[in-house]
Amino acid sequence: MKNLKYLSLLNLFMIVFTACEEDSYEFGPITSPTNLQVNVEIVGSSTENPNGDGTGVVYFTASAENAISYEFIIEGESVAVTTSGILEHTFYTVGVNSYEVIVIASGTAGNSTSTALSVEVLATYTPPADLVEALTGGSSKTWRVKSDVQNHFGLGPPGGLIPCEWYGAGPEEKTGVGTYDDRWIINSDGTINHVTNGNIFGRTAQVHADLGDNGTGSIDGADILNYEYADYNENWVITDPGQISINLSGKMFFTYYTGGDHVYEIWDYNDNELYLKTLDGAAEFTWWFILVSE
Questions:
Q1: For residue 257, is pLDDT > 50?
Q2: CATH class held by domain 129-293
Q3: CATH of range 34-123; options 2.40.440.10, 3.40.630.30, 2.60.40.10, 3.40.140.10
Q4: Is 215 helix (H, G, I), strand (E, B) or coil?
């Protein structure tokens, strides 16, 4: 009987040992990217115009051995992570300006190599005077969601031209979600203040990816309601990349946080109303908004 017990224990040990052997894994070599190089092409650059043709468009092409992704940080803000190493970026500040750029090449297990460079770029666009006046009132102007009209908030297909083609909110439909009490103060010095009154409304995936999951807000489908977020300030500039747009710095947004490039096309405006649209960070929908001045 004792021998039988010993044999049973031995068989059990062999089974466990065999299972451990079968579950073992071997990791490949972990290497950091090397020989990181970044090529910079300023559109329209020439001997006569070394800072470009005034469009502000710059192409960055990064390459490195053993790299699987590249992150581009411009003036301290991460603007893109790509696997190709290619980035097209437009600089909007009028005049010749110098910008600090950091490129990080990442390899296996998160190992990375970085390089820093600076570019001087010319931007010459001057926005329509009546638009600047409408936005700022000459000095400072406060805007809010025009919640009392149909289609003050909605969505449609990417690149769509019909406002709220797939969905448009009815009057006061989004009461209590964290957007109707928001105020945007647009100032003539190029700054913008977002008064959130403590919480915001947005796309859950983009809010959590860009602003972080702080454990607040309630989830309603793909939306997050009343996500806690304090008042903050950023900058704005008007550009015309084929369509007059208002470009917001940092994480500034209007009405509903969608992530993306924070560029809002102005498809119509008057002294008291702004009609805006933007593509979300997932390139899933075009979002439409109407703001009204106070």
A1: yes
A2: mainly beta
A3: 2.60.40.10
A4: coil
